[in-house]
Amino acid sequence: MAEQLGLQQAHVHRLAASGSLPSSKSPGGLLRFRRDDIELLRTLTPDDPHEGPSLDQLVQVALAGDVDTITSILVDGARRDGAVAPVLERVVVPLMHETGDRWMRGALSVAQEHVITNVVTEALVLVRRELHTDMHHGLAAALSCGGDEHELGARMAQVCLEVSGFRCIHLGRGLGSDELIAWCAKSSPDVLTCSIPITTDPRRVALDVIAVAASTAAHTRILLGGAGASKLTGVHERVDVLHSLRELEAAVRCIPLP
Ligand code: B12
After folding, report:
1. pLDDT computed for residue 150 by the predictor
2. What is the distance in A from the centroid of ligand 1 to the CA of 96?
3. 23 bridge partner residues
4. Residue 150 C-alpha to ligand 1 middle, in angstroms?
5. Which domains does the chain have, with CATH numbers?
6. pTM, full prediction
């Protein structure tokens, strides 16, 4: 069925293995999925790359400090797709990667990189406000692991969770595992997402995540993602590594309502 709906089998199986897509087994051992869940996934994986501004236009808009235009591109895209992750991956991620590449080549100054980052950060706050939903699926938290300054991954995860109906606290960056464990004990989140930037030492993060997984309440779903997370496998039985914001949005939308 996944293939009929235009989804890659490996993508669907990875989601099922991580528990992000509810599945059952047929008597013959084949994986079975509910049609509604697969259709939701397809919404989050549009095959039509909508016409939009070019990467260069996005860079120019952001360099001009035009938060409103970036916000409208994101809000319009999310409304059209019925999900926010696709437009974040189509617009914000390439914009930030391009910014990094231009900075490396000396085509953008550090000040210009900061302007773009700040415009995107502000736009993400406004997007959350615009796409606010009254659903209350539960409490979530998003944080950046590893202690460096890269935190847009956590902010994008926060947007995905809020658009999916969770109240999501942004815990920022540089939080030690003891602090995080104490926060989780007090707040009892339903979902904890950790964004791991490419610059982060995955072994250090793995140790922190294991400590958190061993100490948080059993109902807390722990999800890792980000460019640095791809280096992490089999961290802990309670921890799922997701490969994209689309997977995150699909996974949290499949969490049963309280
Ligand atoms: C903005 C930026 C900064 C800003 C960060 C500000 C902020 N508030 O975040 C500032 C200026 C502070 C900065 C500093 C540095 N930076 Co910098 N930075 C970037 C830049 C341009 C964008 C980062 C970003 O937001 N990317 C967007 C993210 C979110 O994309 P992503 O990580 O690929 O995530 C994707 C997925 O992984 C997923 N995802 C992310 N999180 C999560 C979470 C979950 C749960 C899920 C499911 C998915 C998910 O979402 C995205 C969609 O696919 C990148 C370029 C790049 N290629 O990313 C460089 C980059 C990361 N920086 C780099 C470097 C080297 C540095 C510095 C060391 C530079 C220096 N010499 O000082 C310092 C580090 C300082 C420090 N102590 O932290 C290098 C890293 C190289 C490497 N391979 O290690 C990069 C790649 C630039 C480059 N081309 O070389 N940086």
Report:
1. 94
2. 8
3. 33
4. 5
5. 9-43 (no CATH), 51-132 (1.10.1240), 135-258 (3.40.50.280)
6. 0.87
